[in-house]
Amino acid sequence: MILWAPAFVDDLGDFPDRNIDSEFHRLTAGLGVVRKKLGEKRYAALLDLSARAKTLFAADQDDTNGKTDEGCVLLFEMEDVLKNERSPRVQAEMPDDEDEFTGD
Fold first, then answer.
1. Is residue 56 one of the residues assigned to a domain?
2. Are the CB atoms for 85 and 99 separated by under 8 Å?
3. Per-residue pLDDT of the chain in tens (104 residues, 90 and over written 9)
4. Is 87 inside a domain boundary?
5. Most buried of 12, 25, 39, 50, CB within 10 angstroms?
6. Would residue 101 count as lying in a domain?
7. Domain that holds residue 13
8. Is residue 24 part of a domain?
9. pTM score of the predicted model
10. Number of domains present in the structure of the chain
């Protein structure tokens, strides 16, 4: 996502419907898919970080006032939360819902 920040628009035109709303919708939908694995506390924290990041990106559509950098920091924070949740699952070889040992 960071590569497309702050507007999340595809300048080449391959994905004309891509924008900040569509990208953050995909992000929150993806979090919803793994909600059970994350637990409610982490899920809520990630949704909060996502909403805050989207607000920052929306406030800096031209990448001129520093809000884009702040939004990127929040996306990296989300990545850290996800990695911290995933690591113990991988080490414990916990199966996913499909009984595969992917640890995600």
1. yes
2. no
3. 888 888 888 888 899 999 999 999 999 999 999 999 899 999 999 999 999 999 999 999 999 999 999 999 999 999 999 998 877 766 677 766 655 545 55
4. yes
5. 50
6. no
7. 2-91
8. yes
9. 0.82
10. 1
